[in-house]
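Can't paste images in this forum, so I'm doing it all in text. The chain is below; anyone willing to post the predicted structure tokens underneath?
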Amino acid sequence: MPSPAATFDASFDWFIDREVVLSRTTRAERRVMIRVGGRIRTWARRSIRPRSTRRRPEQISQPGDPPFSKTGFLKQLIFFSYDPQESRVVIGPAKSNSAKADRGIGPTVPELLEHGGRITVKRTRKPKRAGEGNRRRSRYRSYQVTLDYPERPYMRPALAENLDFALEAWKGVVR
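Text version of the structure:
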């Protein structure tokens, strides 16, 4: 007598219309992910406020608050992208132009603003006296300065504010 496991043929292809459910799921998933990614990106961009240079040129944001932006460059760097292979959304600033970060030596400016940190930069100055730099190469003196950046997050608060929206958007995805 054959065993019951040997005679049982498990096939769920006839049970649920798999292609229809999967295509609806991926379509709805893509729609929700793009919607949530766009909202978080917009929230992060709006949290970065312009800085007035006329009234108080030295004005900077308080540590823990989103950064001010004089030129709006950081706002323009924030993007989101949906990755269908991984089924995820990546939201954040694009890689900025930082020579040390490209070589893996230090963080980029958006990373410094979001997480805070310390960076060492090279500065140059003119000599104080006229006779100090007689040769052409020694005219300017270079020195290093260590700068501390307190964290001024703009992406984490945007995600935290929109978590409820994301959860609500996922309700009723597959009908």
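Confidence is low (pLDDT under 50) at residues 1-15. Residues 74 and 93 are 7 Å apart (CA to CA).
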